[in-house]
Amino acid sequence: MDLISLRHLAKDARVISFDFFDTLFIRPLDNPEDAFDLLANKFSIPDFRQLRRNAQKNAFAQMVKEGRKEITLRNIYNNFQGTRGDTESLMEAEYQLELALVEPNPFFISFFNDLILSGKTVVITSDMYLEEDFFRAALKKYDMPDVPLYISASRNATKRDTGEIFDYLLAECEVEPHQVLHIGDNEMADFIKPREKSINAWHYQSPHLVNKGKKQPLASSLINGMIRTLRPDNVAAGSFQQLGYEYQAPATWGFLEWIRKQCLTDNVDKLLFVSRDGYALERLASRYFTEKLPSFSYFMGSRIAFNLSLMDEENFSQNLAFLMSGSDGLSPGELLERIGVEPPADHVMMSAGVAPDLVIAPENYELVEKFLIALRAEILKVCQRNRRGLFIYLHSLGIKEGDTVAMVDVGWSGTTQEAFIHTVKKFMNINVIGYYFCIANTFERKRRTPHQKMKAFIDNDTTSPTLVDKIYENRVAIELFFSAPHNTVIGYKPVKNGVCPVTDPGRTKSKDHNLINAQLTEGVDRFCNDFLAMLARLQVNLTPMQLAEPLISLTTKDDWRRNHLFMQIENFDSWGSTRNKVVKFQDYFKNSSTC
After folding, report:
1. Name one GO molecular function term (predicted).
2. Edge to edge, what strands does the sheet with 200-203 contain?
3. Per-residue pLDDT tens for 233-242?
4. What is the pTM of this model?
5. Position 227 pLDDT exceeds 70
6. Whose CA is closest to 272, among 241, 305, 250?
7. Kind of pairing, strands 103-104 and 25-26?
């Protein structure tokens, strides 16, 4: 589209007519009917969208029967059936929501004002069931000039059928058809019909209108609209910032809202956002949820730290499987590094029957396990230190006997929670609940369910098992969004005034991980500012699940696996990292460790 050519056309016209919706004014929604879903939330009428559609259909039938040419909002709500709610209140709410939604289109606003300043006659011509008072209110709201209006609901004449409303325009403006230029987005009503009357027409084809998706989550519709209307130049397309804005931020907000409700139900004393999954959650909670949640902390920990803290003389052998997990491709020294144990000198390893450059594989598992057993004393020293550090850490957080503690983790099978429970019960009696973004249909999760309390934002009770399985299959993408700009915590080191977390940088550097996280976080921050402003403007809300739907939709389709942003990530998981090879993000698709 070219405003230069449009300005040239306008020079020869005495009257310039603008369509209103999706032309002179726009809404921050991909589909206008998504406004009905916002009203459904506001009035707790789940099927409002369909009821509203039916009412409009019946209003059109009544219009035809009575020989009229257009319907009004009043006609629609006179035909509204299926709810005992006050239809007058519903009608007023729709009117006010539409008024809150519409805003001037930046593409046209300067052109519109320039035309008026130049002395041209500028009018608005719209096919709409809202009457003239709505359009005057919208213009007044944005301090725009009050121009002549040709509105189908007020004139009982339309553009779309015979173009009759243009006859009113020609007569009242006292001009010939060739002296009028009409601008609009609808090919039939705004281009073909005026041209049939010899009126010049310019078909407005916004990229948004051409590419808009009608079958998408409500949150995606609103988010796309927010980017388009609030941050058209500040959220770069195809960036991690955009991923943070569109997917991470709404899912994080929705998950936090769900957590808030669970904390009330469970009477939680202390909420722990476990690293690294809990980083973005705790960050948003600190900014927006401090008055809505019980006492909470960002809890430096992991399944590795808790499992190591659990290990002692009695259970060392049964934890060999944990020490060996995900070790294919590592060297024996790397196997020790990832649990915080300094590898012995090469000659010591050789004397233990293990070559320092050995590449661990199934055929040498038995040999490597013997090596670990030989280093049992050194490993258990680290485990004992971790256990003591964890004890000090919990006390520093104010956790005490008898407390109900909720651990927040992204998912998937309760491994981290189980290790934490078994470790902590050695020195403290607390009630531990797991709050998960999603718990999967894995054997391990089913085994743990009878013995530990786990609640999930997404599980078989809130959606289909098939969708849960699909989310779990693509869990590595979700884990990226619930990550943090620091290394994995693998233990604790008591110090003079408390405890310091011990972290694992991995055997190879994560490619741009901190930069990626910073860009995602920037997108999250911008979303939160825009989202809160939009909710205040519209006086509506989205449910926690609606907010999570964009991320669910992204990660349950295979397209994300071909996204160039995901493909540039390397060595994302320090547990399985090795100097022997670079692990690409796609390598995790089928081999992510359960947690």
Report:
1. metal ion binding
2. 149-151, 121-126, 15-18, 180-184, 200-203
3. 678 888 999 9
4. 0.91
5. yes
6. 305
7. antiparallel
Q: What residue segments make up the domains of the chain, in order of their start? A: 3-210, 216-595
Q: Which of 287, 591, 265, 560 is nearest to 435 (CA)?
A: 265
Q: How far is CA 273 from CA 216, 270, 277, 278, 435, in A?
A: 31, 10, 7, 4, 9
- Which two three-digit tokens encode residue 166? 């243009």
In CATH terms, the superfamily for domain 3-210 is: HAD superfamily/HAD-like (3.40.50.1000)
Could you tell me the two tokens for 558? 């295979």
Q: What are 157-197's pLDDT values in tens digits?
A: 999 999 999 999 999 999 999 999 999 999 999 999 999 99
Angle at the Cα of 428 (from 422 to 431), degrees rounded to 5? 70
Q: Which pair of tokens denotes residue 139?
A: 């213009």
Percentage, residues of the chain above pLDDT 70: 95
Across 37-61, average pLDDT: 96
Distance (Å, whole) CA 131 – CA 317: 78
- Helix (DSSP H) and strand (DSSP E) numbers for the chain: 28, 14
pLDDT digits (tens, 9 = 90+) for 461-517: 999 999 999 999 989 889 989 999 999 999 999 998 899 999 998 877 666 788 889
